[in-house]
Amino acid sequence: PIKALLFDLDGVIVDTAIFHYQAWRRMANSLGFDITEEFNEQLKGISRTESLDIILAHGGLVLSDEKKAELAAQKNEWYLELVSQMTPANILPGVTDFFAQVKAAGLKTALGSVSKNARLILERIGMLDDFDAIIDGTKISRGKPDPEVFLKGAAETKAQPDECVVFEDAVAGIEAAKRGGMLAVGIGEPAVLTWADLVVGSLADLTLDEVLTLAPTHR
Ligand code: G16
Ligand code: MG
């Protein structure tokens, strides 16, 4: 039986991807090049330092570790300026209603995000108390697609991997869930999230009953 539901943050609970994109773009522009929204897709669910490396390679730049640390800090400052304007109105469609169903059914919930700002964001949208466990970038040593973030969520909610369902919008996140031996619900496009056991446009398109009767389509 399903005991715990593990949620990604960015793109599942709240749309912070646009803020990450705006902050990274501002940084790229300051270095003399640009990034597109399409390019930004590959950064979803990828850690801050790895994202920076991908962007610098795209701009054809090789920089010292010191300079890179400076740029990562600057990007985060710009990102936090945008996050500071967030309110509960930024919660994605269907999330609040879905969580009401989950709580009523007595299931455990965990957050599984590689972001070091996850707690701050949950606080801004008023959802800090909605999770039984919060696994974020401060608690993991390996980012998605490594399953660490979700395996820790399972452990903290005292569920076995095959008793967990992961909700993810990123290819790297679906891969992390499947490598961890969990069921994965993709939020987005079926053509993109090919490894997911089910894909929906948003949590508004899904009932808890559908999730609880899910069978693995991939291993
Ligand atoms: C999120 C975003 C990524 C971001 C990462 C690190 O992951 O999807 O784009 O680079 O967090 O965030 P921060 O710079 O705040 O530590 P997730 O796992 O919530 O999708
Ligand atoms: Mg995400």
TrEMBL record:
Keywords: Carbohydrate metabolism, Isomerase, Magnesium, Metal-binding, Phosphoprotein
Cofactors demanded by this protein: Mg(2+)
Reaction catalyzed: beta-D-glucose 1-phosphate = beta-D-glucose 6-phosphate
Database matches in PANTHER family: 6-PHOSPHOGLUCONATE PHOSPHATASE, HEXITOL PHOSPHATASE B
GO molecular-function terms, A-Z: beta-phosphoglucomutase activity
One family name in Pfam for this protein: Hydrolase
EC number: 5.4.2.6
Entry keyword tRNA processing: no
Membership in a protein family: Belongs to the HAD-like hydrolase superfamily. CbbY/CbbZ/Gph/YieH family.
Organism: Larkinella insperata
Designated name of the protein: Beta-phosphoglucomutase
Tagged with keyword ATP-binding: no
InterPro entries, alphabetized: B-phosphoglucomutase_hydrolase (IPR010976), Beta-PGM (IPR010972), Beta-PGM-like (IPR051600), HAD-like_sf (IPR036412), HAD-SF_hydro_IA (IPR006439), HAD_sf (IPR023214), PGP-like_dom2 (IPR023198)
